[in-house]
Amino acid sequence: MRIISMALGASVIALAAPAIAQDILFKPIVEARLRVETVEQDGPAPISEDNDATATTIRLRAGGEVSSGPFALLAESEGTLALDEHYNSGVNGKTSLPIIADPETVELNRLQIQYRTKPLVVTIGRQRINLDDQRFVGAVGWRQNEQSFDAARIEYMGIRNLKIDFTYAIAAQTIWGIDGGRFGATNRPTRIEGSNLFATVAYATKAGTLTGFAYLVDEDEPVVALQRNSSQTFGLRFAGARPFSKTVKLSYAASYARQTDATDNPVRYAADYAAAELGLDVSKIRLTAGYELLGSDAGATGIAGGYAFQTPFATLHKFNGWADKFLTTPATGLQDYYAGITYTLPKLGKTGPLAASVAVHRYDSDRDKIHYGDEYDAQLSLKLDKRLTALVKYADYRRKGIASFTGDADTRKFWAQLDYAF
Protein backbone atom coordinates (compact mmCIF):
# COMPACT_ATOMS: atom_id res chain seq x y z
CA MET A 1 0.00 0.00 0.00
CA ARG A 2 2.87 2.35 0.92
CA ILE A 3 4.54 1.60 -2.41
CA ILE A 4 1.29 2.37 -4.27
CA SER A 5 0.91 5.68 -2.40
CA MET A 6 4.50 6.64 -3.20
CA ALA A 7 4.00 5.75 -6.85
CA LEU A 8 0.75 7.71 -6.99
CA GLY A 9 2.45 10.70 -5.37
CA ALA A 10 5.32 10.50 -7.85
CA SER A 11 2.83 10.39 -10.72
CA VAL A 12 1.02 13.48 -9.45
CA ILE A 13 4.35 15.36 -9.13
CA ALA A 14 5.36 14.25 -12.63
CA LEU A 15 2.05 15.46 -14.07
CA ALA A 16 2.24 18.77 -12.20
CA ALA A 17 5.88 19.49 -13.11
CA PRO A 18 5.27 20.55 -16.74
CA ALA A 19 2.53 22.95 -15.63
CA ILE A 20 4.79 24.46 -12.97
CA ALA A 21 7.70 24.64 -15.41
CA GLN A 22 5.54 26.45 -17.96
CA ASP A 23 4.51 28.97 -15.31
CA ILE A 24 8.11 29.99 -14.57
CA LEU A 25 9.66 32.23 -17.21
CA PHE A 26 13.26 33.36 -17.56
CA LYS A 27 14.29 36.43 -19.55
CA PRO A 28 18.06 36.90 -20.00
CA ILE A 29 19.72 40.31 -19.93
CA VAL A 30 22.80 40.70 -22.12
CA GLU A 31 23.89 44.18 -23.19
CA ALA A 32 27.20 45.55 -24.44
CA ARG A 33 28.41 48.97 -25.51
CA LEU A 34 31.76 49.87 -27.08
CA ARG A 35 32.46 53.61 -27.08
CA VAL A 36 35.24 55.96 -28.10
CA GLU A 37 34.86 59.46 -26.66
CA THR A 38 37.26 62.32 -27.29
CA VAL A 39 37.37 65.78 -25.72
CA GLU A 40 39.28 68.83 -26.94
CA GLN A 41 39.12 71.58 -24.36
CA ASP A 42 40.72 75.01 -24.49
CA GLY A 43 41.69 77.20 -21.52
CA PRO A 44 41.22 78.42 -18.94
CA ALA A 45 40.57 75.17 -17.10
CA PRO A 46 42.06 72.71 -16.63
CA ILE A 47 45.48 74.28 -17.10
CA SER A 48 47.59 71.56 -18.66
CA GLU A 49 50.01 70.94 -21.50
CA ASP A 50 47.48 68.42 -22.80
CA ASN A 51 43.86 69.58 -22.78
CA ASP A 52 42.74 66.65 -24.95
CA ALA A 53 41.35 63.38 -23.61
CA THR A 54 40.43 60.01 -25.14
CA ALA A 55 38.39 57.27 -23.52
CA THR A 56 37.92 53.90 -25.18
CA THR A 57 35.59 51.94 -22.93
CA ILE A 58 33.44 48.84 -23.10
CA ARG A 59 30.41 48.32 -20.89
CA LEU A 60 28.82 44.92 -20.24
CA ARG A 61 25.58 44.11 -18.47
CA ALA A 62 24.46 40.58 -17.68
CA GLY A 63 21.69 39.06 -15.66
CA GLY A 64 18.14 37.91 -15.96
CA GLU A 65 14.59 38.02 -14.70
CA VAL A 66 12.68 35.03 -13.33
CA SER A 67 8.92 35.51 -13.23
CA SER A 68 5.92 33.47 -12.20
CA GLY A 69 2.45 34.94 -12.34
CA PRO A 70 2.52 38.51 -10.99
CA PHE A 71 5.88 38.08 -9.24
CA ALA A 72 9.33 38.64 -10.73
CA LEU A 73 12.90 38.64 -9.46
CA LEU A 74 15.53 40.53 -11.48
CA ALA A 75 19.31 40.58 -10.97
CA GLU A 76 21.78 42.45 -13.18
CA SER A 77 25.51 43.10 -12.93
CA GLU A 78 27.36 45.85 -14.75
CA GLY A 79 31.03 46.39 -15.55
CA THR A 80 33.03 49.01 -17.44
CA LEU A 81 36.59 48.50 -18.68
CA ALA A 82 38.81 51.29 -20.01
CA LEU A 83 40.86 50.13 -23.00
CA ASP A 84 42.39 53.62 -23.29
CA GLU A 85 42.41 55.70 -20.08
CA HIS A 86 43.91 58.98 -21.27
CA TYR A 87 41.15 60.93 -19.51
CA ASN A 88 39.94 62.11 -16.13
CA SER A 89 37.16 59.70 -15.14
CA GLY A 90 36.27 61.90 -12.18
CA VAL A 91 37.69 59.41 -9.68
CA ASN A 92 41.00 58.20 -11.19
CA GLY A 93 43.11 61.17 -10.12
CA LYS A 94 44.01 62.36 -13.64
CA THR A 95 42.76 65.85 -12.89
CA SER A 96 44.98 67.59 -15.46
CA LEU A 97 42.90 66.04 -18.26
CA PRO A 98 39.33 66.88 -19.32
CA ILE A 99 36.69 64.80 -17.61
CA ILE A 100 34.92 61.89 -19.31
CA ALA A 101 32.59 60.46 -16.67
CA ASP A 102 33.00 56.74 -17.47
CA PRO A 103 35.16 55.24 -14.70
CA GLU A 104 36.17 51.60 -14.58
CA THR A 105 33.85 49.65 -12.30
CA VAL A 106 32.19 46.33 -11.55
CA GLU A 107 29.00 46.38 -9.53
CA LEU A 108 25.52 45.07 -8.89
CA ASN A 109 23.40 47.40 -11.00
CA ARG A 110 19.92 46.06 -10.20
CA LEU A 111 18.46 43.55 -7.75
CA GLN A 112 14.72 43.88 -7.40
CA ILE A 113 11.54 42.01 -6.55
CA GLN A 114 8.45 43.11 -8.44
CA TYR A 115 4.72 42.50 -8.13
CA ARG A 116 2.89 43.56 -11.29
CA THR A 117 -0.73 43.49 -12.32
CA LYS A 118 -2.68 45.72 -14.68
CA PRO A 119 -3.70 48.26 -11.99
CA LEU A 120 -0.68 47.97 -9.67
CA VAL A 121 3.09 47.57 -9.92
CA VAL A 122 5.26 47.40 -6.78
CA THR A 123 9.05 47.28 -7.10
CA ILE A 124 11.40 46.83 -4.14
CA GLY A 125 15.20 46.79 -4.25
CA ARG A 126 17.93 48.31 -6.39
CA GLN A 127 16.17 49.51 -9.51
CA ARG A 128 16.21 51.77 -12.55
CA ILE A 129 13.87 54.77 -12.24
CA ASN A 130 12.99 57.14 -15.10
CA LEU A 131 10.24 59.63 -14.26
CA ASP A 132 8.51 61.71 -16.97
CA ASP A 133 11.17 63.31 -19.20
CA GLN A 134 13.92 62.45 -16.65
CA ARG A 135 14.49 66.16 -15.86
CA PHE A 136 14.35 65.42 -12.15
CA VAL A 137 14.87 61.66 -11.77
CA GLY A 138 16.52 59.36 -14.30
CA ALA A 139 18.96 56.51 -14.84
CA VAL A 140 21.62 58.59 -16.67
CA GLY A 141 21.53 56.01 -19.45
CA TRP A 142 24.03 57.88 -21.64
CA ARG A 143 26.92 57.15 -19.29
CA GLN A 144 28.48 53.69 -19.29
CA ASN A 145 27.68 53.13 -15.61
CA GLU A 146 24.05 54.09 -15.05
CA GLN A 147 22.46 55.48 -11.90
CA SER A 148 20.15 53.20 -9.95
CA PHE A 149 18.23 53.58 -6.69
CA ASP A 150 17.75 51.46 -3.58
CA ALA A 151 14.04 52.11 -3.27
CA ALA A 152 10.45 51.00 -2.91
CA ARG A 153 8.21 52.17 -5.74
CA ILE A 154 4.43 51.92 -6.18
CA GLU A 155 2.71 52.60 -9.51
CA TYR A 156 -1.11 52.59 -9.39
CA MET A 157 -3.25 52.72 -12.54
CA GLY A 158 -6.58 51.46 -11.17
CA ILE A 159 -8.50 54.67 -11.95
CA ARG A 160 -9.23 55.46 -15.58
CA ASN A 161 -6.84 58.00 -17.13
CA LEU A 162 -5.01 58.42 -13.81
CA LYS A 163 -1.57 57.18 -12.76
CA ILE A 164 -0.10 57.60 -9.29
CA ASP A 165 3.63 56.97 -8.95
CA PHE A 166 5.33 57.09 -5.54
CA THR A 167 8.94 56.21 -4.69
CA TYR A 168 10.84 56.20 -1.40
CA ALA A 169 14.58 55.87 -2.06
CA ILE A 170 17.18 55.42 0.68
CA ALA A 171 20.19 55.70 -1.65
CA ALA A 172 21.37 56.38 -5.18
CA GLN A 173 24.11 54.25 -6.72
CA THR A 174 25.93 56.88 -8.73
CA ILE A 175 27.70 56.78 -12.10
CA TRP A 176 31.07 57.03 -10.29
CA GLY A 177 31.29 53.29 -9.58
CA ILE A 178 33.29 51.41 -6.98
CA ASP A 179 36.14 53.96 -6.92
CA GLY A 180 33.81 56.86 -6.12
CA GLY A 181 35.34 59.38 -3.74
CA ARG A 182 38.97 58.47 -4.48
CA PHE A 183 41.77 61.00 -5.00
CA GLY A 184 39.88 63.69 -3.15
CA ALA A 185 36.73 63.43 -5.28
CA THR A 186 34.51 63.44 -2.19
CA ASN A 187 31.63 65.02 -4.11
CA ARG A 188 31.61 62.01 -6.46
CA PRO A 189 30.90 59.06 -4.14
CA THR A 190 29.89 55.54 -5.08
CA ARG A 191 26.66 55.86 -3.14
CA ILE A 192 24.61 58.78 -1.85
CA GLU A 193 22.37 57.92 1.08
CA GLY A 194 19.32 59.84 2.22
CA SER A 195 15.55 59.83 2.50
CA ASN A 196 14.23 60.78 -0.94
CA LEU A 197 10.57 60.97 -1.93
CA PHE A 198 9.54 61.12 -5.60
CA ALA A 199 5.81 61.48 -6.30
CA THR A 200 3.88 62.13 -9.51
CA VAL A 201 0.16 62.12 -10.26
CA ALA A 202 -0.68 62.11 -13.98
CA TYR A 203 -4.09 62.57 -15.58
CA ALA A 204 -4.51 61.87 -19.29
CA THR A 205 -6.88 63.94 -21.44
CA LYS A 206 -7.45 64.11 -25.20
CA ALA A 207 -5.26 67.21 -25.38
CA GLY A 208 -2.40 65.73 -23.34
CA THR A 209 -1.28 64.56 -19.91
CA LEU A 210 -1.22 66.87 -16.90
CA THR A 211 1.26 65.78 -14.23
CA GLY A 212 1.73 67.16 -10.76
CA PHE A 213 5.01 66.28 -9.13
CA ALA A 214 6.91 66.54 -5.87
CA TYR A 215 10.60 65.67 -5.52
CA LEU A 216 11.97 65.76 -1.98
CA VAL A 217 15.72 65.21 -2.09
CA ASP A 218 17.76 64.50 1.03
CA GLU A 219 21.45 63.87 0.34
CA ASP A 220 22.49 62.71 3.79
CA GLU A 221 26.25 62.99 3.30
CA PRO A 222 28.96 64.90 5.22
CA VAL A 223 30.20 66.63 2.03
CA VAL A 224 28.90 70.21 1.84
CA ALA A 225 28.66 70.12 -1.97
CA LEU A 226 26.21 67.21 -1.68
CA GLN A 227 24.28 68.67 1.25
CA ARG A 228 23.50 71.68 -0.97
CA ASN A 229 21.48 69.38 -3.23
CA SER A 230 18.94 68.68 -0.48
CA SER A 231 15.76 70.38 -1.65
CA GLN A 232 12.02 70.18 -2.13
CA THR A 233 10.56 70.78 -5.58
CA PHE A 234 6.87 71.04 -6.45
CA GLY A 235 5.52 71.62 -9.94
CA LEU A 236 3.29 70.84 -12.90
CA ARG A 237 3.95 69.51 -16.39
CA PHE A 238 1.63 69.27 -19.39
CA ALA A 239 2.58 67.34 -22.53
CA GLY A 240 0.59 66.22 -25.54
CA ALA A 241 0.28 66.04 -29.31
CA ARG A 242 -2.26 66.82 -31.99
CA PRO A 243 -2.21 65.06 -35.36
CA PHE A 244 -3.37 67.08 -38.37
CA SER A 245 -2.99 64.25 -40.89
CA LYS A 246 -1.22 60.92 -41.27
CA THR A 247 2.09 62.71 -41.87
CA VAL A 248 1.74 65.95 -39.88
CA LYS A 249 1.68 66.20 -36.07
CA LEU A 250 2.21 68.99 -33.55
CA SER A 251 3.60 68.13 -30.11
CA TYR A 252 3.92 70.42 -27.13
CA ALA A 253 5.12 70.42 -23.53
CA ALA A 254 5.34 72.96 -20.72
CA SER A 255 6.57 72.75 -17.12
CA TYR A 256 6.84 74.96 -14.06
CA ALA A 257 8.34 74.19 -10.65
CA ARG A 258 9.44 75.93 -7.48
CA GLN A 259 12.43 74.68 -5.49
CA THR A 260 13.54 75.53 -1.96
CA ASP A 261 16.17 74.19 0.39
CA ALA A 262 15.37 71.24 2.69
CA THR A 263 16.73 69.15 5.59
CA ASP A 264 20.44 69.80 6.27
CA ASN A 265 21.10 72.07 3.29
CA PRO A 266 23.40 74.85 4.58
CA VAL A 267 22.05 77.22 1.88
CA ARG A 268 18.72 79.01 2.23
CA TYR A 269 17.26 79.74 -1.21
CA ALA A 270 14.22 79.63 -3.48
CA ALA A 271 14.37 79.34 -7.27
CA ASP A 272 12.02 78.75 -10.20
CA TYR A 273 12.08 76.32 -13.10
CA ALA A 274 10.21 76.76 -16.38
CA ALA A 275 10.30 74.98 -19.71
CA ALA A 276 8.37 74.99 -22.97
CA GLU A 277 8.86 73.02 -26.18
CA LEU A 278 7.10 72.71 -29.53
CA GLY A 279 7.69 69.95 -32.08
CA LEU A 280 6.38 69.62 -35.60
CA ASP A 281 6.54 66.30 -37.46
CA VAL A 282 6.14 66.50 -41.22
CA SER A 283 6.67 63.12 -42.88
CA LYS A 284 10.29 62.13 -42.17
CA ILE A 285 11.29 65.52 -40.71
CA ARG A 286 10.87 66.72 -37.11
CA LEU A 287 11.41 70.36 -36.13
CA THR A 288 11.89 71.29 -32.46
CA ALA A 289 12.19 74.59 -30.62
CA GLY A 290 12.24 75.21 -26.91
CA TYR A 291 13.23 77.21 -23.86
CA GLU A 292 14.34 76.15 -20.40
CA LEU A 293 14.98 78.25 -17.29
CA LEU A 294 16.80 77.14 -14.17
CA GLY A 295 16.41 80.19 -11.99
CA SER A 296 18.80 81.80 -9.53
CA ASP A 297 18.29 83.32 -6.09
CA ALA A 298 20.68 86.23 -5.69
CA GLY A 299 19.63 86.59 -2.05
CA ALA A 300 20.50 83.02 -1.03
CA THR A 301 22.18 82.81 2.35
CA GLY A 302 24.94 80.44 3.40
CA ILE A 303 26.85 80.78 0.13
CA ALA A 304 28.52 83.68 -1.66
CA GLY A 305 27.23 84.76 -5.06
CA GLY A 306 23.74 83.26 -4.87
CA TYR A 307 22.44 79.79 -5.66
CA ALA A 308 20.45 78.25 -8.52
CA PHE A 309 17.89 75.53 -9.21
CA GLN A 310 19.54 72.07 -9.21
CA THR A 311 18.44 68.61 -10.40
CA PRO A 312 21.09 66.20 -9.00
CA PHE A 313 19.24 62.95 -9.84
CA ALA A 314 18.34 63.88 -13.43
CA THR A 315 19.55 62.33 -16.66
CA LEU A 316 21.43 65.57 -17.26
CA HIS A 317 22.93 64.69 -20.66
CA LYS A 318 19.44 64.99 -22.17
CA PHE A 319 19.30 68.68 -21.33
CA ASN A 320 21.26 71.86 -22.10
CA GLY A 321 23.47 70.39 -24.82
CA TRP A 322 25.62 67.30 -25.20
CA ALA A 323 28.85 69.02 -24.20
CA ASP A 324 27.62 68.70 -20.58
CA LYS A 325 28.72 72.18 -19.53
CA PHE A 326 25.73 72.72 -17.21
CA LEU A 327 25.54 69.52 -15.16
CA THR A 328 25.62 71.85 -12.16
CA THR A 329 23.59 75.01 -12.72
CA PRO A 330 25.82 78.11 -12.38
CA ALA A 331 25.07 80.37 -9.42
CA THR A 332 23.65 83.01 -11.78
CA GLY A 333 21.17 80.50 -13.24
CA LEU A 334 20.64 79.32 -16.80
CA GLN A 335 18.41 80.13 -19.74
CA ASP A 336 18.67 77.69 -22.66
CA TYR A 337 17.14 78.71 -26.01
CA TYR A 338 17.35 75.82 -28.47
CA ALA A 339 16.16 74.55 -31.84
CA GLY A 340 16.77 71.36 -33.79
CA ILE A 341 15.88 69.28 -36.82
CA THR A 342 15.81 65.49 -37.22
CA TYR A 343 15.49 63.49 -40.44
CA THR A 344 14.56 59.81 -40.18
CA LEU A 345 14.62 57.11 -42.84
CA PRO A 346 12.66 54.02 -41.70
CA LYS A 347 14.70 51.78 -44.00
CA LEU A 348 18.16 52.00 -45.53
CA GLY A 349 18.63 48.84 -47.54
CA LYS A 350 18.43 45.96 -45.08
CA THR A 351 19.11 48.25 -42.12
CA GLY A 352 17.21 51.04 -40.42
CA PRO A 353 15.96 53.24 -39.13
CA LEU A 354 18.58 55.89 -39.92
CA ALA A 355 18.22 59.14 -37.97
CA ALA A 356 20.26 62.33 -38.46
CA SER A 357 19.82 65.37 -36.23
CA VAL A 358 21.37 68.76 -35.57
CA ALA A 359 20.63 71.27 -32.81
CA VAL A 360 21.79 74.69 -31.67
CA HIS A 361 21.68 76.22 -28.16
CA ARG A 362 22.13 79.73 -26.81
CA TYR A 363 22.98 79.88 -23.10
CA ASP A 364 22.30 82.98 -21.00
CA SER A 365 22.23 83.54 -17.26
CA ASP A 366 19.02 84.11 -15.32
CA ARG A 367 20.50 87.26 -13.74
CA ASP A 368 23.41 89.64 -14.40
CA LYS A 369 22.80 89.46 -18.19
CA ILE A 370 25.61 87.01 -18.98
CA HIS A 371 25.79 85.28 -22.36
CA TYR A 372 27.66 82.11 -21.39
CA GLY A 373 28.07 80.75 -24.89
CA ASP A 374 26.57 78.81 -27.78
CA GLU A 375 26.58 75.12 -28.67
CA TYR A 376 26.17 73.13 -31.88
CA ASP A 377 25.27 69.44 -31.72
CA ALA A 378 24.95 66.73 -34.37
CA GLN A 379 24.15 63.02 -34.28
CA LEU A 380 23.76 60.12 -36.73
CA SER A 381 22.39 56.74 -35.64
CA LEU A 382 21.71 53.57 -37.62
CA LYS A 383 20.10 50.36 -36.44
CA LEU A 384 22.17 47.68 -38.14
CA ASP A 385 19.87 44.82 -37.13
CA LYS A 386 17.40 44.09 -34.35
CA ARG A 387 20.17 43.91 -31.74
CA LEU A 388 22.99 46.16 -32.96
CA THR A 389 22.96 49.97 -33.26
CA ALA A 390 25.76 52.30 -34.39
CA LEU A 391 26.03 55.96 -33.44
CA VAL A 392 28.32 58.92 -34.04
CA LYS A 393 27.81 62.21 -32.24
CA TYR A 394 29.46 65.63 -31.95
CA ALA A 395 29.12 68.61 -29.61
CA ASP A 396 30.84 72.00 -29.93
CA TYR A 397 30.50 74.50 -27.06
CA ARG A 398 31.88 77.99 -27.70
CA ARG A 399 32.33 80.25 -24.70
CA LYS A 400 31.56 83.96 -24.99
CA GLY A 401 33.61 86.53 -23.06
CA ILE A 402 35.27 85.57 -19.79
CA ALA A 403 34.85 82.22 -18.07
CA SER A 404 31.58 82.57 -16.13
CA PHE A 405 31.54 79.33 -14.11
CA THR A 406 33.79 76.40 -13.22
CA GLY A 407 34.73 74.51 -16.39
CA ASP A 408 33.53 77.27 -18.72
CA ALA A 409 35.87 76.64 -21.65
CA ASP A 410 35.61 76.07 -25.39
CA THR A 411 34.91 72.35 -25.65
CA ARG A 412 34.51 69.90 -28.52
CA LYS A 413 33.39 66.33 -27.95
CA PHE A 414 33.09 63.39 -30.34
CA TRP A 415 31.61 59.93 -29.79
CA ALA A 416 31.53 56.74 -31.83
CA GLN A 417 29.80 53.71 -30.36
CA LEU A 418 28.18 50.36 -30.95
CA ASP A 419 25.30 49.09 -28.79
CA TYR A 420 24.25 45.46 -28.54
CA ALA A 421 21.16 44.25 -26.70
CA PHE A 422 20.04 40.62 -26.62
From TrEMBL:
Residues 1-21 form the signal peptide. Keywords: Signal. Residues 59-157 form the Alginate export domain. Pfam families: Alginate_exp. InterPro entries: Alginate_export_dom, Porin_dom_sf. This is Alginate export family protein. It comes from Sphingobium nicotianae.
